[in-house]
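Deliverable D2.4 — example input (structure tokens):
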């Protein structure tokens, strides 16, 4: 059976889904699309996006399971043999369609879902806002890592606290002496070609993605996508991939997008002085998150200079270049060139050129399709401000 994960309310996940489809965001040790595919065995999965600047439209021609990008399955699910709506906690998150015509647009999907009477409950989570990723990341790490359940072939030169069966170090990974793996709260998974330098402590549950480098770090219950450069202190965070926080400083309970660079001593607050729940600005409205500990959300290709201080619950858009250190604003929209004294528009050509240089440093070339996406997104953001 074919599965189409369709983007739903992607703008509620600003700034995380600005430049990548929402189903490709990390939660636990996998992206949403990887997670859902593992629980829908024997299926092929595509993503449907309909944005003014970003279109992906797979064409369903066979029986298809339609699944909202806000849904995260947590248990194996075999599609039923009849057409029905899929529910999590009494809320519709998709449906199964066996007979043509098969919906091809979000409008058609919405209309079709409303015409189906039968319902079946599935086990999973529903994500509504960016902070839900932080809320659920620890439990999803435990779920994923327990299922992955690989065994380390050679014991690393490291201090192991807890049951070594909960540690996996890929054969191509490099672990230096004076490293500590604490497995008492959950497993740790070190993926291929990772380098962990001396004087690093990692506390599970934790996933370190392929090709990442960890130096002189203290890491607690976090997820790192591929090719990250990490140092200092990280607590309960998600790094989407290809991002740097290589020096001293603290980042806690935060989601960091792709191609982000956090300068030396960059530090965020993840707890208010009055110990009240953190409020976050999304779409011009402040939301009560219900969370006591919550840090920041940083969009792709943002660069923060040395000594930057990030307030609790901050939202920082894509392509922000903040310099000069000190406390930054709690909200900066996309394509901003800013310090404590002024905020200006980041010129598009300069932003693209910097992104091209940064990607080349990781051995990747910005292809015309990705450059075109950035240009379209910039124009779309400009149109919103007019």
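Example output (designed residues):
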């Amino acid at each position: 059976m074919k599965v189409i994960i369709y983007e739903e309310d992607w703008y509620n996940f600003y700034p995380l889904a600005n430049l990548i489809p929402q189903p490709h965001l990390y939660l636990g040790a996998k992206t949403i699309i990887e997670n859902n595919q593992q629980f829908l065995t024997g299926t092929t999965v595509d993503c449907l996006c309909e944005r003014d600047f970003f279109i992906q439209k797979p064409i369903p021609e066979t029986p298809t399971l339609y699944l909202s990008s806000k849904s995260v399955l947590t248990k194996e699910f075999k599609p039923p043999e009849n057409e029905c709506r899929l529910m999590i906690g009494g809320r519709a998150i998709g449906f199964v369609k066996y007979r043509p015509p098969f919906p091809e647009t979000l409008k058609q999907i919405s209309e079709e879902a409303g015409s189906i009477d039968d319902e079946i409950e599935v086990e999973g989570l529903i994500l509504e806002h960016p902070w839900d990723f932080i809320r659920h990341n620890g439990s999803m790490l435990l779920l994923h890592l327990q299922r992955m359940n690989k065994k380390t072939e050679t014991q690393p030169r490291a201090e192991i606290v807890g049951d070594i069966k909960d540690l996996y170090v890929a054969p191509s990974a490099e672990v230096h002496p004076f490293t500590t793996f604490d497995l008492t709260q959950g497993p740790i998974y070190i993926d291929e070609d990772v380098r962990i330098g001396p004087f690093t402590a990692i506390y599970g549950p934790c996933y370190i993605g392929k090709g990442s480098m960890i130096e002189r770090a203290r890491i607690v219950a976090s997820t790192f996508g591929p090719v990250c450069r990490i140092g200092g202190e990280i607590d309960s965070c998600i790094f989407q991939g290809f991002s740097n926080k290589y020096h001293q400083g603290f980042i806690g309970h935060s989601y960091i997008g792709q191609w982000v660079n956090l300068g030396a001593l960059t530090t965020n607050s993840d707890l208010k002085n009055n110990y009240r729940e953190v409020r976050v600005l999304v779409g011009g409205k402040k939301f009560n998150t219900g969370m006591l500990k919550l840090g920041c959300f940083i969009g792709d290709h943002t660069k923060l200079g040395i000594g930057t201080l990030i307030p609790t619950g901050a939202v920082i858009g894509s392509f922000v270049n903040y310099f000069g250190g000190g406390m930054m604003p709690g909200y900066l929209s996309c394509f901003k060139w800013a310090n404590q004294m002024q905020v200006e528009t980041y010129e598009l050509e300069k932003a693209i050129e910097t992104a091209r240089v940064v990607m080349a440093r990781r051995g990747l070339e910005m292809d015309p399709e990705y450059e075109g996406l950035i240009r379209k997104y910039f124009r779309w953001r400009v149109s919103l401000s007019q």
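Residues 59 and 104 are 6 Å apart (CA to CA).
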